[in-house]
Amino acid sequence: MDTRQLEYILTIAEEKNLSRAADRLFLTQSALSQQLSKLEAEGLPPLFTRHKGEMQLTDAGKIYINGARSILKIKGDAQEALKDLRQAKIHHIHIGVCRLFQPLYYERILPWLKRSYPDVEVTAVTPKLGQVRNLLENNEIDLALFASRQRNKFLKYIPLQEDELVTAFLPALEGAPLPLALPAPDTHLRQLADEACGNAQQLMPIYAEPEDLRSAIALAKMGECAALIPKSLVRGTGLACSSLNPPFHYQNTIVIRRGTPLPIIRDICDWIQRYGFRDGCQA
Prior knowledge:
Number of helices: 9
GO cellular component, one term: cytosol
Structural class: alpha/beta
Oligomer: single chain
Family: Belongs to the LysR transcriptional regulatory family.
CATH class of the largest domain: Alpha Beta
Distance between the termini: 48 Å
Protein name: Transcriptional regulator
Strand content: 15-25%
InterPro entries: HTH-type_LysR_regulators (IPR050950), LysR_HTH_N (IPR000847), LysR_subst-bd (IPR005119), WH-like_DNA-bd_sf (IPR036388), WH_DNA-bd_sf (IPR036390)
Number of domains: 2
Keywords: DNA-binding, Transcription, Transcription regulation
Shape: elongated
Largest sheet: 8 strands, mixed
Order of helices and strands: HHHEEHEHEHEEEHEHEEH
CATH topology of the largest domain: D-Maltodextrin-Binding Protein, domain 2
């Protein structure tokens, strides 16, 4: 359906007069009358009746008008979003991706970005510990994928998934005093791990501190140690897992600057919320 027809009917309903509506639309009265007849010829019931010289909506006309307003609002919102995108002139975005989320980013998020925004260059930045706020405030990154238990009032946090740090081990070794493979030092996950170990009532010796959590999982599958990893990574490994005492939960989030995000940033956040974490954060 041509949205101009919707605008014609809305204008007639507002003016309650075909001649005034035609003047407002810069059409001849006969041209506007033809448009109305064309709609009714498509099988629609009459949209207007004449009463005391005015064109008044029928019940069918009221339903049509409500639908027309909704459709035109959607069209207007889409046009505004496209206008904002053109005005923003975004050719390059920077995404902060902590090591935990790099497999997810490169295997799922980046391919979607390349397909959806082929003209936008995308750069991934690995923030150092404590850098996320400064990078966002200095416009060095546009958003960050981040694991945290803390909040900063200057930033906006969009929740993705709650997770838990657990010890993962071969089922046959449950209860054995195994050393731990911990995340590498100076990483966001290690910061959480240090906090978790500080809170826990038991702390085993450190076996290794691999950069890649897949290495920690491999060591645990070999029976060399237990791995302190997110519970979401245990699924499908054949490992058993145990909560710390007390359990240590944290939130996987998107972090952006406060205020109204640009349309492309809003689209990215919406997509990651809907689809990016559908199967959890996989190493």
